[in-house]
Amino acid sequence: MGLFSRFFGKKTEAKQMDSSIVPNPDIDSAASLSIVFKGELNIDNDKLLTKLKSIDPTIKDIRYEIPYGQLEAGICILVSWGKHIIRIIGLNAPYPKDVLELCVAPASYSQEIKQQVYESDSHLLLYYVGYDQDVLEQYLALTRLAACFEQFNALAVINESAHTSLPVSTIHGMVTEKDGLTTLGQCLPILFCGFVKYEIENTKGIWMRTYGAHIFGLPNFAALANSYEESGYYFDMFNNILNYLRQSQATMKPGDTMEMGDNRMMSLRAPQDDEYFLKDEGDLLVIEINN
């Protein structure tokens, strides 16, 4: 099998051929996470797999391939277990500063760690190219693997689509603690559908919204809150709605309304023309709550 076929796959090929790892050719937009590091990349593939096995002892068939051999400018690896295949591309170069600012500034961890992330030297890109059709399972597989890089001077995990990030130590803690991954999967705005708050000039109140829900085939949600003190309220609301839509496969659209109790009604609308800051990739619904 040629290198191109082994790395990118062909539609006529089965999942595995000649014991090579063949990425899923039918994935058009792969779920992905990135990892930033202090210093140059120094990844030991065997230690990486050993760590993954220790995190999840149920994994029995984990293996890796280096499709292009040793690269001078970085690394390229395929890691496989069960239905999962993850393509890892590593560069000994800083992560783009504008993307870091977008994902690190709104995140809720210490300024000291954020500064270390801003000053990072190298990075990995992790793409899910396996055969599990559930986007959440794809993200959880990426997260398991991302946690294993803490031993190689990793600093933080970045989700560019979700405009958010977490320290790799936090990711490792969640992956290794009992029900930690379950919590992460049930609270999508933590990492997979980022929760962002920002002020707009000449606007009274604080805009709060999600990013990255389009990866799940869902709309993002936004609301104009009265103050930052309402962060927890809207975090829970967005998370509950996203989980409901993902699990029920129901849909929501502009004009929909929902009773909320206490004589309150939630209505949904599309962003208005002057709300240009809400418009980006995918659909977004603005939540308004009225008595």
From TrEMBL:
| Lineage of the organism | Bacteria, Pseudomonadati, Pseudomonadota, Gammaproteobacteria, Orbales
User: For the DUF4261 domain, which residue ranges apply?
Assistant: 209-282
Q: Which organism is it from?
A: Gilliamella apicola
Q: What is this protein called?
A: DUF4261 domain-containing protein
